[in-house]
Write a structure and sequence with these properties.
Number of strands: 9
Shape: globular
Radius of gyration: 18 Å
Helix content: 40-55%
Strand content: 15-25%
Structural class: alpha+beta
Largest sheet: 5 strands, antiparallel
Strand order of the largest sheet: 4-3-7-6-5
Number of helices: 6
Order of helices and strands: EEEEHEEEHHHEEHH
């Protein structure tokens, strides 16, 4: 049976993440990943980051995540020390799915930074933070939300950087190939 062009048995599309943001206590970028072209320029991205920070920084999102509608987006956010974690989805996205991504993101960063979740430590381990982002979301699709699993994959990647491709996971092999390609292009 068709209902307004869709089969009644059709599955809803998976949740899509528009961006993951890690900002400092003044709203400056520490690590960000955008998965849509909604903010096509660096200026637009910086404007969004500044606006979402300004709207949320006075809230008390230290004990649990908060949710806000902002510019036709659902933004779920949490603060740990001087770092502000944000996950953005469309206004139609399930807030629980976005909150699960946020929790996995903040838990993984906490584990990987060994509980020292502050701006200085995050900047010193920026490569680890970006690997964490890559393990959570790919092209806007949620890959993993369990902080322990994310941290484990990132830690394994950091240990296996020198391992032969045959002994690496697909994600690790792709990351290694990307590194080699980048190096060869920069020569």
């Amino acid at each position: 049976m068709m209902i307004s062009g869709r089969s009644r048995d059709a599955c809803p599309p998976p949740p899509m993440i528009k961006n993951l943001l890690l900002l400092d206590s003044e709203g400056r970028c520490v690590a960000v990943k955008y998965y849509t072209d909604e903010w096509p320029t660096n200026g637009a991205k910086l404007g969004f980051e500044r606006s979402v920070f300004t709207k949320t920084h006075k809230t008390n999102a230290r004990t649990e995540a908060e949710i806000v509608m902002f510019e036709n987006n659902v933004v779920v956010y949490k603060f740990i020390q001087d770092l502000h974690f944000f996950v953005t989805g469309g206004d139609y996205e399930n807030e629980l799915a976005l909150a699960a991504v946020l929790q996995g993101f903040s838990d993984a960063v906490t584990l990987l930074l060994r509980g020292n979740v502050d701006q200085r430590e995050a900047l010193e381990n920026l490569d680890t933070i970006f690997l964490c982002l890559d393990e959570i979301v790919d092209a806007g699709l949620i890959l993993e939300t369990d902080g322990n699993m994310i941290a484990g994959k990132v830690a394994t990647h950091n240990l296996d950087d020198g391992a032969p491709l045959s002994e690496q996971t697909i994600t690790q092999a792709l990351a290694t190939a990307r590194e080699h390609l980048t190096r060869s292009l920069l020569r």
